[in-house]
Amino acid sequence: MAKPSLKQIMMLTLFFKKQFITKIREGKKTQTRRLKQPRIKIGKTYNLRSSYTRVLTEKILITDIFQQYLGEISVEDIRKEGFDSLTEFINIWCEIYGNYDPEEIIWVVEFQYVGNTEMFKVKP
Q1: Which entry of 13, 34, 87, 110 is 20 to 30 Å from 65 by CA?
Q2: What is the 3-state secondary structure (H, E, C) of the chain?
Q3: Would residue 64 count as lying in a domain?
Q4: What is the pTM of this model?
């Protein structure tokens, strides 16, 4: 079987900062918000990636993708994001994206942790 290209690998993974991988494994993070529409599909599984080149054998299953205003995040959503408070969420958001604009339209991805599985397979 041919070795997958870097582009193929990136299309079969979803990047999370290392600090969030543990929360995903523990089921404490089941949602993520992104500025750009992720190249993923509902019902598909994706390997976790903790850096540009570090692809993990662990996978998540995408259960929903939708848009909303960043400021519409609820208390339940904050918990699904793996945070205890809105302040904590905003602080991390600002660390990642530079600023928090509640009127900004973002993408919400809901997922469930599938665990360790075979690494992705690339079709010939």
Answers
A1: 87
A2: CCCCCHHHHHHCEEECCHHHHHHHHCCCCCEEEECCCCCCCCCCEEEEECCCCCEEEEEEEEEEEEEEEHHHCCHHHHHHCCCCCHHHHHHHHHHHHCCCCCCCEEEEEEEEEEEECCCCCCCC
A3: yes
A4: 0.85
Are 106 and 70 in contact by the 8 Å Cβ rule? The answer is yes
Of the pLDDT bands very low, low, confident and very high (cuts 50, 70, 90), residue 3 is low
Determine, yes or no, domain membership for 121: no
Give the C-alpha separation, 2 to 107, whole Å. Answer: 34
Query: How many domains does the chain fold into?
Result: 1
